[in-house]
Amino acid sequence: MKMAPKLVLYEFVASPPVRVVKMLAKSLNLELELKPVNLMNKEQYNPEYLKVNPTHTVPTLIDNGLIVWDSHAIMIYLMDKYAKNDSMYPKDLVKRAMINKLLFYDASIFDKMIGMMRPIFFGDVKELTDWQKASLVDSYESIERILDGNNFVAGNDVTIADISLVVTLTSANCIVPIDFKKFTKIAAWIKIMESFPFYEPNVVGLKLHAEIVKKFLNE
Ligand SMILES: N[C@@H](CCC(=O)N[C@@H](CS)C(=O)NCC(=O)O)C(=O)O
């Protein structure tokens, strides 16, 4: 008899941090029981959901009663609890510090990006300001420098920081297109990331995200 999955993920398919968690779960071969939260219908504000995640965001993971939200915290938890080897998030202090700084950087570009899209998704703003667009390009410049001399963002091995940043970047690309002729290291790295089997959850979600962004920015 098939055992019921014990890992529950509250999700919205287009959400970038949800895709991050799905990619890592796929790479760790973890089965997720997906529970949709329709952000467009403001379901994240349902009182039952607010009990699970008081910050009204997805993703939220529940593992046997333990609630973890924020994709970065979820990735660290899943790696520490379920990874058969630690290559994507090594226990080595120095390697971990290299990854952590990128996860925190991702969280802050993410917040910037989410912050600027919120009034567009949930309010009546139709356009980003020049400053908002420039701040995304500034992030592209930072990532291009981060990739200088490395195959991946934290060195020569793929880690959870690559998962976070590739999802952020490919999502940001729908808002302010990345000039791939200029950002050649980003272009090459995205291609490598796309070649991993665990990249698949980013494909459908990213397409939906692009459609939502287009609809809201062009109305
Ligand atoms: N830093 C968080 C960001 C979570 C987040 O802002 N998620 C968005 C969707 S991409 C959300 O749920 N927004 C709904 C809201 O803010 O009400 C993470 O990495 O999980």
TrEMBL record:
It holds the Pfam family GST_N_3. Residues 92-216 form the GST C-terminal domain. It comes from the Eukaryota. InterPro entries: Glutathione-S-Trfase_C-like, Glutathione-S-Trfase_C_sf, Glutathione_S-Trfase, Glutathione_S-Trfase_N, GST_C, Thioredoxin-like_sf. Residues 5-86 form the GST N-terminal domain. One of its GO terms (molecular function) is catalytic activity. Gene3D superfamilies: 1.20.1050.10, Glutaredoxin. Homodimer. This is Glutathione S-transferase 1-like.
